[in-house]
Amino acid sequence: MDTAWKEQVLRLAYSDSEQGNLEYVSLVDQVEGKVTLEIARVLMQTFSDEPDYGVQESVVRVLESANQEVYMQALLEELPRLLREAPQWADTLLILAINFSHNALLKVARQMSLSVQNMIVEAITVCVK
After folding, report:
1. Which of 91, 68, 66, 67 lies closest to 79, judged by CA?
2. What residues contact 105, with CB distance under 8 A and at least 6 apart?
3. Do 28 and 63 form a contact (C-beta atoms < 8 A)?
4. Spatial CA neighbour of 42 closest among 54, 27, 20
């Protein structure tokens, strides 16, 4: 992965300018269909509860272009932080995973630590209430 790309993505993730948002979406779009685990991990780091002006939907779209198991690995690795810092995104991403990638989610979840597995169950329980 290009280090400059990673630094720019993380710097622009929550830009409060229209130009910054356009640059961010352009950077994210560059990796559509080419998402490795490393890229998915970087993209997952961009989710927060800060206002995103709708640009994070482009990240979701690009993550969905990845191999499902790669996407689920990055999601589940980042889940503890998401539950603390971006619970709405944790809910949204888990619901999408359950609805559209449940087999990959289950396969990857079986490989995660018991603490992460427990977080998944707890988060799903909260989502469906």
Report:
1. 91
2. 72, 76, 97, 98
3. no
4. 27
Instruction: Give the tokens for residue 103.
Output: 């087999």
Predicted confidence at residue 128, as pLDDT, reads: 67
Q: How does pLDDT run across 102-118, given as a tens digit for each residue?
A: 999 999 999 999 998 89
Q: Taking Cα atoms as reference points, which of 15, 14, 8 lies closest to residue 39?
A: 8
Angle at which helices 56-64 and 87-100 cross, to 10°:
30
CA atoms within 13 A on the CB side of 18: 0
Separation of alpha carbons 22 and 34, rounded Å: 20
Written as one letter, the residue type at 34 is K
Rg of the chain on CA atoms, in Å: 14
Q: So what's the pLDDT on residue 52? A: 85
> What's the predicted TM-score (pTM) here?
0.92
CA-based torsion, 86, 92, 7, 17: positive or negative = negative
